[in-house]
Amino acid sequence: MTPTMLKGLRRLFFFTVPEAARFITTSHDTPQGTSEQRWREWENGESPIPESLIVRMKELNEWRSLALDATADNIRIQMREKGGAPKAIFVIWYDTLDDWMTLPKRDPVMWRLQQSVCAALLGTFDTVKLVRFDMANYQNWLSGREDSEALRAEWASTQQ
Prior knowledge:
Radius of gyration: 18 Å
Number of strands: 2
Shape: globular
Order of helices and strands: HHHHEHHEHH
Number of helices: 8
Strand order of the largest sheet: 1-2
Structural class: mainly alpha
Helix content: 55-70%
């Protein structure tokens, strides 16, 4: 992987340099990730990119591709079954990491990848509507039920 490829993937994944340094490089040995300066050195070609980072970037890119393909396939299936494009397909957009992390057991690195997938879907299907996650509104709608991905998707479909 070249420094330019590293930078391109980071941007495709919607990460800033500080976020990439903090989240993508987090491991058992480096629970706080690496420094922003170190990441910049990799992107600028001043230091060799570690093999573990190359592997991680490939894994994240594969996850993104699979998520995008699976969601796009589901949209196309809905379009075929309904004889055309549905009026709207609602997808939740999490503005902040704090909003993303409100559902237990979420991995912080996936927040920006989810945004990247949402943006790609928005650019591919004109029926995709992004719904900004609003915790107060959602909790009111939830009415004491146990939070889940499925309920969040249902809530999003009610936000017009």
